Amino acid sequence: MIRSDCHMHTEFSTDSEAPVRAMADAALTRGLTEICITDHYDKDYPPVPDVEGTAFLFEPEEYFQTLSEVRDEYAGRLDVRTGIEIGLQPHLGEFYRDFIRKHPFDFVIGSVHLMNGKDPYYGEVFEGRSDREVYREMFRLTLENLEAVQEFDVLGHIDYVVRYGRKQAEEYSCAEFADEIDAILRKVVEMGKGIELNTGGFKYGLGFCNPHPDIIKRYRELGGEIITVGADAHRPEHVAYDFGRADEILKECGFRYYTVFENRKPVFRSL
Fold it and tell me: What's this model's pTM, rounded to 2 decimal places?
């Protein structure tokens, strides 16, 4: 049974208003023993409509102060860990190396949210192109980012882009993109990093997690061992979303454990 949610966002993320304590309370309600708060830090993210100033950044000192207080309040009931989800871009390798090493994060997710400076969430990248073309380019850019940025622990939601395609999964098949996906997974294993099982795909109506179970299975076949589980919740009601299905998927893909991180070190928990 999965008792740890290692991907969630709070009021420190531009796209969430959830208090940290509300997320912690939701975790307790769902029987979790561990959570990791992984708020967005997307350096050089483009301007966002209706957001004043720079989006998807937070003040580390304020974050760590709040998390320290919450950790003490919930001690003995819930292990609250400090994390971050950084937005990978090829020119940010040195920046993230210096930034992450300055702060005592337990866990760092590295995610690709942008295609040539544009987030698929807003739909612009799909204009005049098929979903299939955009998906292929996103996979190519993911590999490019892995070559440039190393300061993370787990590659986030590998097929994130499919959530926002015009037809979502209709033009998506892991077999069609097997070469691109294999290159990504081989690089992750070579780097000694991991991937995540992100149940947000179920919430977005894809009918599968991110990445697709076929990708998780292939990762295991290629020697991948590190795999965290997170719901990518931005509201309390989505904490540990569909974790029962996540447990089944991991077992079907050949895993008998899942991973959490403490002080940037992987710890393995039995399913």
Answer: 0.97
